[in-house]
Amino acid sequence: MKRLKYLAYALASIFLLASCEKDETKVYLSDKSTAPVLSTPADKLTISLTEGTKDETFTQFVWSKADYGFKAAIEYQIQFSKNSDMSRPKVLSTVSLSNKYSLSNLEFDKFLLGSLKLTPNVAATIYYRVVAVVAGLPRTTYPAGGATTAVQTMTVTPFNTPVDVKSWGIVGSATPNGWNGPDFVMDDGDVEGQYEAIVTLNAGEIKFRFNNDWGLNLGGTPGALTQGGNNIAISEAGKYKITLTVKKDGNTYTGTYTIVKL
Fold first, then answer.
1. Which regions form coiled coils (predicted)?
2. What is d(CA 191, CA 209) in angstroms, rounded to the nearest whole number?
3. What pLDDT, in 10s, does the model give residues 14-60?
4. pTM assigned to the model
5. Domain 28-157 adopts which CATH fold?
């Protein structure tokens, strides 16, 4: 009987996968799935990471197991984003056969700086969740993309771990760290050569530079950035969305930018 039971599971799985491959728009998992629930870290956690605590264990991630209504191999993605709608999430880890995950403060710090591109020694509010992924099934077969925990927030201050992050950043008297940096690192945009940031600025001036180095910096007008160009004035303090588009022709860099006050 056990063999027949396992055979039935296998045949059902094969049928479901084959149906997904033929017409993904017509096959869906049950929308009555039980989503995982995060128990730790606590929502609205505030924490500062430091050199002195880098070898300590960061708060453990623990969640309840998801249930899709049938026997399934479920993987859990711990996702982080700088946006409250969880757009452009970065995966901290994918966990199989467990509902717990631990890492050191140093490992988390490297993720914050390298993947989320936070600014060292500056507090930032970030958003996170756990998404239950059924191994081997296309995401289009999931209700709303997958069973997920509620989105929680965390305010974290990373320290200056040496991380090989090569990206464009914003520097200047209007930025949190001034002209000496480190720069406010920009996220990759939707297209190649485009970078974006949502940042709180003071009245002052800014420029764009690559990898915290004045060897490659851009300034000028919105439609005509040039290497070593003029500083860009920020007339009043506030929260801004900044988009930078960089073009390279040989060893020459030019670009354009938009700055929108939110």
1. none
2. 19
3. 334 444 444 444 445 555 678 899 999 999 999 999 989 999 999 89
4. 0.58
5. Immunoglobulin-like (2.60.40)
